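FORM 12-B: Structure-to-Sequence Request
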């Protein structure tokens, strides 16, 4: 869909007359709202990434076993991937700016943000798994990492899905 095909829609799929905005204004607003969401998630990823980077330079890092090192490296790479997914919309916008592709930018950026949240959930679960594994042991680490992942999935995916269904929002 190009920007010329963009149609302002309300939550129920009908034209969005309540906001009295053109399709281009809606695309601009949607992108601004998405960028605001990404600012929050990007900060979280940056903090997680910084934490993970410092771990490799601590005194206890050489004591990690193979499982813990694997968890560490996997989590570090997931944090990098999440950061890339969350910053990609800015690069996409910069590359396509002024070419009448705002709706496309919004649609692709929204998908990138959703993928970024999924990867961030895995990275958070990995970080929790690693820390709890070091402090309390393997079983506790696996359990709390799994609970962290379920919590993220519940709050970031299941809750919005349930609210959409309950409110009749497509």
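FORM 12-B RESPONSE
SEQUENCE OUT:
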């Amino acid at each position: 869909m190009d920007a010329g095909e963009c149609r302002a829609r309300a939550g129920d799929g009908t034209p969005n007359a309540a906001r009295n905005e053109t399709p281009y204004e809606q695309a601009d607003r949607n992108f601004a709202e998405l960028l605001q969401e990404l600012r929050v998630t990007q900060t979280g990823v940056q903090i997680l990434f910084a934490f993970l980077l410092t771990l490799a330079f601590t005194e206890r890092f050489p004591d990690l076993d193979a499982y813990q090192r694997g968890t560490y490296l996997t989590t570090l790479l997931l944090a990098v991937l999440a950061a890339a997914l969350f910053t990609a919309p800015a690069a996409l916008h910069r590359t396509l700016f002024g070419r009448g592709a705002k709706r496309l930018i919004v649609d692709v950026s929204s998908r990138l943000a959703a993928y970024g949240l999924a990867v961030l959930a895995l990275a958070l679960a990995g970080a929790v798994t690693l820390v709890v594994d070091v402090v309390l042991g393997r079983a506790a680490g696996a359990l709390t990492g799994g609970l962290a992942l379920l919590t993220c999935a519940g709050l970031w995916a299941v809750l919005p899905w349930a609210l959409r269904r309950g409110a009749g929002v497509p």
